[in-house]
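Attaching the record inline, Q. Sequence:
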Amino acid sequence: MDFRGRVFLAPLTKGGTLPFRRLCLAHGGEVTMGEMAYAYQVVKRSKSELALLRKHDEETCFGAQIAASRIDDAVRAGNAAAERGAKWVDLNCGCPIHDIVKRRMGATLLRKPHKLARLVEGMVEGIEVPVTVKIRLGWSEDEYNASEVARVCEEAGARAVGIHGRTREQRYTRAADWDEIGKVACERSIPVIGNGDLLTWFETHDRWQQSGVASVMIGRGALIKPWIFREIAEKQAWEPDARERLGVYFDFAGKMKEHFRDDEKGKERAMRFLPWHLGFFCRYRPLSGERWEAASREHPLIQTRMPDEASELSLLERLLRDPRKELHERLADVLWSSTDLDEAEAGAAALAGAMPPEAGDAGEVATAHG
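Structure, as predicted:
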């Protein structure tokens, strides 16, 4: 596994399902990562947790992420992932949510570099594929220690370190600090993978070049527009109209049918995810470099509010931008029940008549950690 010169899909809790990863592959993605799995639950053979290690045949460069606090659990879970086709195993040391932190996993390990070093060393010795570590800049603004944490990870044998450019306490409230990410990248000999606030191809290339990181990782940007990988590769924006985007979402629903099965139970499982994804898809706005590149250097576009001129938008466009959860549930049902794009478009038009679209904006997106 080469960790340099790559664009990674981040390990997104709830968002990084197998169907969504396939959608990203269909739009230029190459390197995918599964949702974070609890190592101790994998060891207990939890079906739901083992499912997070499953990859699709299309995923030829797939990595699994685990959360762990004990070496034995981490090693056993890591090898279970490798047996299922993972080319590398990533240790989550950045997740900020309380459930992870109270179990002494995720971002908690940032405060215990020596324990983290022992954990990584044990994983490197016991897992048959490369080990990487995903961290944040620190626990808080008063505890920036990414340099120390990255150093001990390298010394323990990690093959790469991914850095999300915020602290645990900051969550997603401030812009990612790519200067700090770049500082660590300059200090380390192993690849550093930069992550945070990448929504457009020009922001991605700008942060990549200026920070000097070996690779970049896309999280929320991919949730908003899964075709961001295509844009990065081609160095130009793809600005799909409403029907084209509806086609992407229809394809996504089809991939969910293949994964969850096209029956009532499968639909029930898919509906735990599809409306949630529409809550991200509705935040898409066309952001051409000519208009937005200069502004993106002042403030990340993913955190920039962009009010709509509703009177200038088509009815379908307004529908796809509508932020209402109840509408997302109805639209998800339309996508699931349609047999082709024309039927999906007709169903969306009927839905727009029943629930006239409201004006939305592309403000800060909801949290999705990796």
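The longest helix spans residues 242-260. The radius of gyration is 20 Å.

More tomorrow.
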